[in-house]
Design brief:
The structure holds 2 protein chains of 2 kinds.
Chain A (H helix, E strand, L loop, with lengths): L15 E6 L6 E7 L8 H12 L4 H8 L3 H30 L1
Antiparallel strand pairs in A: 1-2
Chain B lengths: L16 H6 L7 H22 L1 E2 L7 E2 L5 H26 L6 H10 L3 H8 L3 H15 L9 H33 L3 H28 L1
Antiparallel strand pairs in B: 1-2
Helix pairs in contact in B: 2-3, 2-4, 2-5, 3-4, 3-8, 4-7, 5-7, 6-7
Classes of the chains: A alpha+beta, B mainly alpha.
Chain lengths: 100, 213
């Protein structure tokens, strides 16, 4: 399956989900759905999060697997947390604009 | 999510020579860096005792004053603790992230490893002859101390090498602070410079009774 695009190739803005389909019966649902905050992250950040979960949330284990120091892993996690928070905040703003 | 479980088996990060020399704390921290750093501090102190080379301050290196080996060893430990404690408090004030003391103290200890090279360089015979000769001349009140050109040139090279080692050490100290406390840019540079100045004063005050004795 191809990778989910998260940004507009033309203007770079955050993309919305416009259509969803059931592969079983072919039912399609149209609308304007925001991407989850995690899905809006870059692929490498998503890979990091998957590794983090698979390591039972152990930064020490992550450091060992990636061959880097503990603070390097923790700093990377801090960066991703900041991106997730930013993505969440911008989605909240979009929701507010839509409701108005 | 586009990641798969197999990605976790990705091989460990490859290190270039330059990152090993100038950004080692991306790869080493914690207890391992603490053990390696303490060993480096003690080796530098012992080598210093062989040539009467003192690291008598966080950023200082001076040659010529004879003292027991324990003084040379204590100097390194006091310098390391002075800067580590000050940068730890600075980090707590400035950083927004929670960081581990063992990472900062360990990498600060390892950041002092270039002093081993500086202490080795100070053992060079031309440098030793130069220091002894200039010391004798100055203590006997000679107006314009002189030395053979060869000793002067080689001694000068050792001096330059030592200064470069100290500059390298300061860079490593900054890198350690920046990585361990996750602080970057002007905030990191400003708080690090303030920390170095405070730690230099603390180390001088703490070392003065030792050197006077």
């Amino acid at each position: 399956m191809t990778r989910l695009p998260t940004n507009c190739p033309s203007c770079g803005g955050q993309l919305l989900v416009k259509s969803l389909a059931c592969p079983g019966c072919g039912t399609e649902v149209d609308g304007r759905y925001a991407l989850p905050a995690l899905a809006s992250l870059k692929a490498e950040d998503q890979r990091f999060i998957v590794q983090f979960v698979e390591s039972s949330g152990s930064l020490k284990e992550m450091a060992r697997l990636l061959g880097v120091s503990y603070p390097t892993v923790r700093n990377r996690l801090d960066e991703i947390i900041a991106r997730v928070v930013r993505a969440g905040t911008s989605q909240e703003k979009d929701d507010e604009c839509d409701s108005q | 999510m586009s990641a798969t479980a197999s990605d976790i088996a990705r091989p460990a990060a490859r290190r270039s020579v330059s990152s090993s020399l100038f950004k080692p704390f991306a790869y080493i921290a914690g207890g391992r860096s603490l053990l390696m750093g303490l060993a480096a501090i003690l080796v530098a102190g012992f080598l210093g005792s062989l040539s009467d080379t003192h690291f008598d301050g966080v950023l200082d290196m001076h040659t010529g004053l004879a003292a027991p080996t324990s003084v040379f060893l204590a100097e390194g430990i006091i310098n390391w603790l002075s800067l580590s404690v000050v940068l730890f408090l600075m980090g707590k004030l400035v950083s927004r992230t929670a960081f581990r003391a063992v990472d900062l103290f360990g990498t600060q200890a390892l950041a002092r490893w270039p002093t081993v090279i500086a202490a080795l360089a100070a053992l060079a015979p031309p440098f030793q002859r130069l220091v002894a000769r200039l010391g004798d001349q100055l203590s006997s009140g000679v107006a314009g101390p002189t030395a053979p050109a060869g000793d002067l040139a080689l001694g000068g090279l050792v001096g330059i090498a030592s200064v470069l080692c100290l500059v390298w050490m300061v860079w490593l100290m900054y890198h350690s602070y920046s990585v361990c406390c996750n602080i970057r840019g002007g905030k990191a540079v400003g708080s690090f410079i303030a920390g170095i100045i405070i730690a230099e004063v603390i180390s001088k005050v703490a070392l003065s009774p030792l050197l006077r004795a």
